[in-house]
Amino acid sequence: MLNLSALCRAWNLPPVLSTWTPETGTIHQTLLFKTATKSYALRAYRYTPSERGRIENEHAPIAYVQARGLPALAPLPLPDGTTILEQDGHFYALFPFAPGYQTLRGHLTLGEVRAMGSFLGHLHQILRDYPHEQVSQSQFTFDLETTLMTIDTIEKAIRSLPSTSDEDEQALARLVERRLWLITASPVNMGKFLALGQQVIHGDYQETNLFFENGQVSAVIDWDKACVAPRAWEVLRTLHYALRLEKAACRAFLDAYRRVLPLPSTDLEITAEAYGWMQAHNLWHYKAVYLEDNQRVRAFLGPGPFIPFAQKWAILRDALYDN
Predict the structure, then answer these.
(1) Which CATH superfamily groups domain 4-96?
(2) Which helix (H) or strand (E) is 44 found in, with range?
(3) Handedness of CA 158, 160, 162, 164 (dihedral sign)
(4) Is 240 in a helix, a strand, or coil?
(5) Which residues face 40 on adjacent strands?
(6) Cα torsion at 207, 212, 217, 223 (round to 10°)?
(7) Residue ranges of domains in the chain
(8) pLDDT tens-place values along the chain, 323 residues long
(9) In 128-246, where does DSSP find H-type helix?
(10) Residue 61 in contact with residue 171, Cβ under 8 Å?
């Protein structure tokens, strides 16, 4: 992490009085600190010097959205007007504290859920004309053989641990179940999904990246996963990750979103099928914990058996479409 004295000089800040680390965040490092006048969030990127463009692609849509009236929290400029500080081969950005409060997953009220849905509709509306080439291009491709080989590698890593916990044993059991499902399930034709209209999306729209105030979303942060995809992909991802496919919350979110932007049920169904197939191939949390020793991600492993997303979606579908 950058020396805080150097940080204060770079941004012309008063001395730091206290620091602390947020509980959320799994990719880049964030340090929260307080000066005599204000509080800030320092973002320390894990990118290499050759990847500076990825940070620029993160900051640009923030400025675009903010200029059009939505509260995207923008990085503070350095004296030369730029927003990225490079020090000893590492990159940093400084953000002001977001206004409002955050709510933990599982504790979102229906009012907050409706605010999330409405805000995402407005966000997608604004991002509709944002240039595709200025963000990452989503990869909706996968290779079954590669996925199965990765599962084998992770299983070997777990079995090679000096000792395994109940959580490790459950992870191992879920990997076995996942492999069996992938081998026996009918592959999804991604063509229909890829034919849906695509635009720039936030990419990680969930409660950890949102702040609330006066019944509205007061700030959206963390744009490093901004990408090009169908709008329904982000909606599905939010229903899954942030709302845990809970019926009342998902219905409230979707209704609020549709009051701003139409989203046909056919688009949602096509996306749900593709999303479920991609999720079955998605091993990022297992790789992070067992191959990269990123223990902050361990909380995402979760208990219980492997249940294909398609089964979970089938239970939710009727509640979403019943008028």
Answers:
(1) Phosphorylase Kinase; domain 1 (3.30.200.20)
(2) strand 39-44
(3) positive
(4) helix
(5) 33, 96
(6) -50
(7) 4-96, 110-140+186-321
(8) 567 788 888 999 998 889 888 766 556 788 899 998 899 999 999 889 899 999 999 999 999 999 999 999 999 999 999 999 998 888 999 999 999 999 988 899 999 999 999 999 999 999 999 999 999 877 888 899 999 999 999 999 999 999 999 999 999 999 999 999 999 999 898 999 999 999 999 999 999 999 999 999 999 999 999 999 999 999 999 999 999 999 999 999 999 999 999 999 999 999 999 999 999 999 999 999 999 998 878 888 888 899 999 999 999 988 787 64
(9) 144-159, 166-184, 191-194, 231-241
(10) no
Q: Into which CATH architecture does domain 110-140+186-321 fall?
A: Alpha-Beta Complex (3.90)
User: Which one-letter amino acid corresponds to residue 191?
Assistant: G
Cα dihedral 236, 95, 92, 291 sign? negative
Q: Which candidate, 113, 188, 176, 198, places its Cα nearest to that of 306?
A: 176
* Tokens 């019926």, residue located: 247
Beta bridge partners of 227: 136, 201
Question: Which tokens in the block code for residue 120?
Answer: 């995402």
